[in-house]
Amino acid sequence: MDSAHEDFGLLPATRRALLHRVATVQAEGRAPSLVAAVVREGRTVWSVGRGEVAGAVPDPAATRYRIGSLTKSLVAVAVLRLRDEGLLDLGDAVGRYVDTEEGADATVAQLLSHSAGLAAEARGPWWERTDGALRPEPADLFGDRPRPHPAGRTYHYSNPGYALLGALVERLRGEPWYEVLRREILLPLGMERTTYGPEAPHADGWAVHPWADALLPEPAVDTGLMAPAGQLWSTAADLSRFAAFLLDGDERVLSAGTLAEMRRPAAEPQGPDWSLSYGLGLQQLRRDGRVLVGHTGSMPGFVAAIWASPDDGVAAVGLANRTSMGPLVPLTADLVGVVAESEPRIPETWRPAGDLAPELLEIAGPWYWGALPFALRIHAGRTLDLTPLGDGGRAARFAPGPDGTWTGLDGYYAGEPLTVVRRADGGVSHLDIGTFVLTREPYEPGGAVPGGVDEGGWR
């Protein structure tokens, strides 16, 4: 059984390919039910439900599933909002805000990126299947080996680490972490059906027998202090709104700069092909030549995934109600690939940047770092684009600052200043990019090139 929704905006062949991929994974993965959705340029352009929930095809807009560790990404957004407000620094030790013996010296950034070296799981029996009352205080979160790795040395996924971040949000906001998320993130993004616990209509969690087509109910407990690591429930429609946020941002929730910070790798890549890495609350996945950002999640009886490709303007969401359904993660990434490859993004219409001051136009054009040629182009908003024209060289974009300089946005020059150096007569002498000098001619004589230029010239 299936139910398709909001399939406007995609070509019939694309919709058919998406449906075939989802139907195949639901059937071969033996999922009692599965919902999926695709977002393009900020709106849901396709969604579908397969299987049954309470005897009916699940509605991607209304049926709630437990989203597991996708909760972590929402908690990370709340933490970064606190940072942007000046209430904390990512280099602060979490013990400054949370009364915890274990992990107190871990920095906020290390907890966000799973590089604090803390244990992967909470103390005691399987925390995802046991009541949070078994761990009533932060001291109860950690077992005999609370830190198997040195802080800051390696990536090691830690669920208790995000429990500490939830406690951090509560400490600085003075209210429960979920209420903070609902007011500051969920409602502004239109995620009204994302809830702390299951609310009707919702899917039940199931385990599927490995050798028979039979189901076993899974518990859905309140995990207490561990809840920031994986408690929440949501719908495919709500998560599509979060996926749109990951693609394009929303200044009501986070600045574009902070969202970009979340999407950048902050921990070492994993896997023999270095295909996975982790940013500040977001995973990065390299697949089929594109870099996707998002998160995966699982709780007993449920799996979830969001993957977004900002370069393609496409994201996908998948939710299912069976334990350990491995195909869901590649499925969601594949849905992004189907749309991106079948219907490539249409470039924005080019328009002139408007009136450009003469001092901007006079720095446009060719420049040389030593003998290596570059092109410097001026774009709208006084942004600069530096592109190497030969073999080698470092490309970068630069944003203008109020002091007449520019700051690198990416690559080697991220955060580095670009300064236009002028002669005494006001003419442009050279560009200085973090002490690297670029001149108008290869090794131009005249004193700008550090170390000087041989007086005999080229020969």
UniProtKB/TrEMBL annotation:
It comes from the Bacteria. InterPro entries: AmpC-like, Beta-lactam-related, Beta-lactam/transpept-like, DUF7586. It comes from Streptomyces thioluteus. Residues 22-336 form the Beta-lactamase-related domain. This is Serine hydrolase domain-containing protein. Keywords: Hydrolase. Pfam families: Beta-lactamase (PF00144), DUF7586 (PF24491). One of its GO terms (molecular function) is hydrolase activity. The lineage of its organism: Bacteria, Bacillati, Actinomycetota, Actinomycetes, Kitasatosporales. Residues 357-440 form the DUF7586 domain. The keyword Hydrolase applies. PANTHER family: D-ALANYL-D-ALANINE CARBOXYPEPTIDASE (PTHR46825:SF7), D-ALANYL-D-ALANINE-CARBOXYPEPTIDASE/ENDOPEPTIDASE AMPH (PTHR46825).
